[in-house]
Amino acid sequence: MPAIRNAPQLITYPDSMGGDIAKIGELLDGPLKGCFGGIHVLPPFPSSGDRGFAPIDYRVIDPRFGSWDDLERIGASLDLGLDLIVNHVSRRSAEFRDFERRGRASPFADMFLTLDKVWPGGEPDPVELALVFRRRERPYSEFRIGETGDVERVWTTFGADDPSEQVDIDVRSPIARQLVADQLALFAQHGVKLVRLDAVGYVVKRRGTSCFMVEPEIHRFLDWLTSTAEPLGLELLTEVHGDVAMQRRLARAGHWSYDFALPALVLHALLAGTADRLLPHLRSAPAKVITNLDSHDGIPIQPDLEGALTLEEARVVVDATVAAGGNLSRVFARDALPDPGFDAHQANCTYYAALGRDDDAYVLARAIQLFAPGIPQVYYVGLLAGDNDRAAVEATGEGRAVNRHDYSDAEIAAALERPVVKRLLEVLSLRASHPAFDGEPTVEGGGSQLRLAWTGGSARCELRADLASRRWDIAVS
Questions:
Q1: Alpha-carbon span 112 to 108, nearest angstrom
Q2: Residues carrying CATH 3.20.20.80, the chain
Q3: Which DSSP category does 47 fall into?
Q4: Per DSSP, what are the bridge partners of residue 257?
Q5: Are the beta carbons of 372 and 282 closer than 8 angstroms?
Q6: Per-chain mean pLDDT for the chain
Q7: Alpha carbon distances (Å) from 362 to 260, 356, 358, 449
Q8: What is the β-pairing status of strands 140-144 and 151-155?
Q9: Residue 248: which residues within 8 A CB-CB, separation 6 or more?
Q10: Distance of alpha carbon 78 from alpha carbon 377, whole angstroms
Q11: Domain 9-86+174-435: what homologous superfamily?
């Protein structure tokens, strides 16, 4: 049996719902009580960038957010989830600071992926470099070693700066594997149940490949992670932005994966008034899948929708988010796209805004997610039916900030009084408590009609929706 229950999970930054983890706990014990079976807290550790995703030290919680005790109190009644960023650590971590000071004489030198581990001599082959699925113009940074003055080139998949704050580790090295194993053991010690493997698709770099989801090495690494986590009672969730076929391969290998195509598919279904694309996708859903409609990284577009929507259908979704005041994250390496003229990677827009701020359409979208096969994660901005935070984009220069609003106590109290949020909480409470969801899902419908049901023993819950009229109801028995 999985270590996590089949009930909705809240996903939030540690400081976005009232300012710290303790405030989140108060909400879960108060107005949100009974709505969730789990919570995923985005990285609460000391970090040097990317709002937590450049972790300095997993052993401590950033005191601005609280403490391990605060997380353990929440984890005593709900399944607690945290991120393990297996691809990289912070440039400010003790291990890399030592390497940056001492270079190859550092005991941590082998932990990091210097370019000579990929290209002998450390000089990238231009043809092979062009094949790399890049998240920045150059997938490595140069660091000057303090004691010698030498320049070391180290792989840095992510980061806006050069040198990057996010330094890739070499997951083949014993010291890196020991670090990861120790972090998993630490999580288990503090009552964590679900560990999301952030950026795991980028951990294998092999010359002559895209350096993304490189097979078979990635599967061997995931098998090692699983064998390390299972004795600790941990479930692992792969965070991979790839096409539907790639997600299905992860599922066939027995891994928990995200349904990153679902957000755009639900938007398309409601915008077009038809379930023709959504139905076959839901019917083929694997048993171990986590669903979402929104996240801190926006609504996935490419490559996540390959195999789910045509390019023209994806454009309809993207156009709706832009018209609603959102913005786009772009694919860097456009030459690898089916149509280089359509380079949308993620649509940065709240889901409520993308649906025209229509309360009925929004609650229906959430009901579809909650009744779809899989365990639903609900992002905190989506929970509160939040609108686009354009001021945050202007203040930070970060397009994704449009869907990363930090709510004050007063804003949360006001949001919880809105009818759209009250309706959503009712459906969440049903999803979290009804025994039918201990059973199996079924997917039926055609045209504008959609019927999603869960049956467990004599208990049954069914969502019946007409996507064209956006009318729906729930039958409970």
A1: 8
A2: 9-86+174-435
A3: B
A4: 238, 289
A5: yes
A6: 96
A7: 18, 9, 6, 17
A8: antiparallel
A9: 284, 286
A10: 13
A11: Glycosidases (3.20.20.80)
Tokens of 449: 């009609």
- How far apart CA 434 and CA 215 sit, in angstroms, is 41
DSSP string, 198-247: ETGGGS---TTS-SSS-TTHHHHHHHHHHHHHGGGT-EEEE-----HHHH
- Pairs from 133-139 (Cβ < 8 Å, separation ≥ 24): 133/210, 133/211, 133/212, 133/333, 133/336, 134/332, 134/333, 135/202, 135/332, 136/160, 136/164, 136/332, 137/332, 138/162, 139/211
Q: Do 467 and 274 form a contact (C-beta atoms < 8 A)?
A: yes
Q: How do residues 250-264 score in pLDDT, each as one tens digit? A: 999 999 999 999 999
Domain(s) of CATH 3.90.400.10: residues in the chain: 94-168
Structure tokens at 90: 């912070």
Q: Give the active site residues.
A: 198, 239
Separation CA 334–CA 318 (nearest Å): 17
Residue among 473, 442, 445 nearest 363 (CA): 473
**Helices marked H in 76-147:** 94-102, 126-131
| Residue 68 identity | W
Left, alpha or beta for 466 (phi > 0: left; psi -120 to 50: alpha)? beta
Neighbours of 43 (CB within 10 A): 24
pLDDT in tens, 192-214: 999 999 999 999 999 999 999 99
pLDDT digits (tens, 9 = 90+) for 17-53: 999 999 999 999 999 999 999 999 999 999 999 999 9
Residue environment code for 124-160, b if the CB has 16+ CB neighbours within 10 A, otherwise e: beeeebeebbbbbeebbbebebeeeeeebbbbbbbbe
Dist CA 372 CA 336 (whole Å): 32
Query: For 169, which DSSP code?
Result: B
User: What predicted TM-score, i.e. pTM, was given to this entire model?
Assistant: 0.96
Inter-axis angle of helices 262-272 and 359-371, to 10 degrees?
130
Judge residue 369's burial from the number of C-beta atoms within 10 Å of its C-beta, 0-12 exposed, 13-18 middle, 19 or more buried.
buried
Query: CA–CA separation, 70 vs 38, rounded Å?
Result: 15
Q: What is the pLDDT of residue 1?
A: 47
Closest to 108 (Cα-Cα) out of 152, 44, 142, 60: 152
283 half-sphere exposure, CB direction, 13 A CA radius:
12
Please give the structure tokens belonging to residue 410: 């007063």
The CATH T-level fold of domain 94-168 is Oligo-1,6-glucosidase; domain 2 (3.90.400)
3 state SS of 457: coil
Short-list 300, 356, 347, CA closest to 324: 356
